[in-house]
Amino acid sequence: MTEISPTPLPIARGLRGRCPRCGEGKLFQGFLNLRAKCGHCGLDYNFADAGDGPAVFVILIGGGIVVFAALLTEVVYQPPYWVHAAFWLPLIMIVTLAPLRLIKGLLIALQYHHKAAEGRLEKRGDA
Ligand SMILES: [Zn+2]
Prior knowledge:
Elements (H helix, E strand, L loop, with lengths): L9 H6 L37 H25 L3 H33 L14
The structure holds zinc ion.
The site of zinc ion (ZN) has 9 residues, from loops.
């Protein structure tokens, strides 16, 4: 039997930093800390554990963008090293910090939508 999900838009709710169940209550308290529960529907956020997932996506995507741009700039223009430092260090801060909250909210919303949790051992019936 297929169960209809109460969250038709988990991606939009996650990206907006809203409760994955009702889409109204705030998910974050501060930049990356989660609230204890939803202020609108009361969903307990203890299930939410994005772990290192947001950081991994940010490192891989943002790092790839900046390294590719820096290498391309070096090959084409060969600027002095201080230009690299002045340009790429702020850019790496932008491309890593800006999407971190979005991706964390997205992963938590998808975790709720798919009921993802740690694996548990279940007792088997006699086979
Ligand atoms: Zn809620």
